[in-house]
Amino acid sequence: MQKNTFILLAVSLLISLYEANGINLDEKVKDHLSGSRHTNNWAVLVCTSRFWFNYRHIANALSVYRSVKRLGIPDSQIILMLADDMACNPRNPRPGKVYNNKNEAIDVYGNDVEVDYRGYEVTVENFIRVLTGRLPPDTPRSKRLNTDDRSNVLVYMTGHGGEDFLKFQDAEEIANVELADAFEQMWQRRRYNELLFIIDTCQAVSMFQRFYSPNLVGIASSQIGEDSLSHHVDPAIGVYIIDRYTYHLLEFLEKVKPGSSKTMQQLMKVCPRHQCISTPGYSTHLFPRPMNETLISDFFGSVRTVDLSDDVIKFKPRKTTSQGDSLKLKTSPKRSYFSVDQFVSTFPIIKKDPHPMASSASLVLLLVIFSFIIRSLCDFE
User: Fold this and answer.
1) Which residue of 72, 170, 205, 316 could cross-link 281, Cys pair, CB 3.0 to 4.6 Å?
2) Residue 61: how many CB atoms within 10 A of its CB?
3) Residue 183 Rama label (left phi>0; alpha psi -120 to 50; beta)
4) Main-chain dihedrals φ then ψ at residue 168, nearest 5 degrees
5) Burial 245-255 (b: 16+ CB within 10 A, else e)
6) What is the pLDDT of residues 101-128, one digit of tens each?
7) Does residue 167 contact residue 173 with C-beta atoms inside 8 Å?
8) What is the pLDDT of residues 54-67, one digit of tens each?
9) Hey, which residues are catalytic here?
10) Distances 43 to 147, 151, 166, 311 between C-alpha atoms, Å
11) Nearest Cα to 84, choosing from 52, 124, 60?
12) What is the pTM of this model?
């Protein structure tokens, strides 16, 4: 009886301290459950098709690549895998360019594309190794998915597929079980916080039916038994130039700006059946947060940590001559160059306010002390 009294007293005291500091416990719990805890964003974009007649699959992957870069994910955090190089294909009437629309409004290849795995490097083995981090020691940093348990990862795949599989270069295939196991390895190895999987292929829903890892969202362009169709032909090259689902996905993403408040629920309304001809599918049962509270920028954007400060830093003005011109450095008569200081010799002294988390840290310390007191009382009894 006395033991329970001490516990209730300690809990009551802690709640009183939180309220005295203006901390609402209900709001804290709600914010923790509804908001994303990630600190960085990564994207793995994969086109698994070769040959000129699969031009649209290359355009699909490059279009998503352009969108995630525009929304803030840098090349250093994007793994781009293209099974073929349409920009340099001898059949391409516009060498070095890839378009996703016959109007040629946007060159999705551009001048700054960084392809990490190209041609025959795009294999099932390399794809699984990238996801799980099981790469040879000499693998360059640019070919590694250096994620952690605070990383939100976007995985986009496009190519030819069927029920329960996706083909790689018409030579091999990855099964939905293998993909599910790869994501589970990522989770066990603490390689993601939340993961968004998007696939544009025939019978695409079958690829995430075996998923069982936490914090996963799946979006597919077609149901089992349905084909994922192309959007339109470019007469200048004679082949289809982009798939329907990706076309409407990009149409939606073009209206999204960094810091947008658009949610995943809005993304899941992209390309209804009357536009796609196929029926997009979704998997949200493994994801803990509601789709209407999950921002698109949690996956398509990039987290940028900014430390705001009200402090004012004063710098001394540059010395000037009597004529008002800035002083010029004197050069040695024997040399055409001169040396300068490489390091700042003086730094402004800034008096900073206490860290905003200082009060929370003291409360945590107080909680630890109370737990020790309660434990000692229990042992004494």
Assistant:
1) 205
2) 27
3) alpha
4) -115, 110
5) bbbbbbebbee
6) 888 888 999 888 999 999 999 999 999 9
7) yes
8) 999 999 999 999 99
9) 160, 202
10) 10, 10, 19, 37
11) 52
12) 0.74
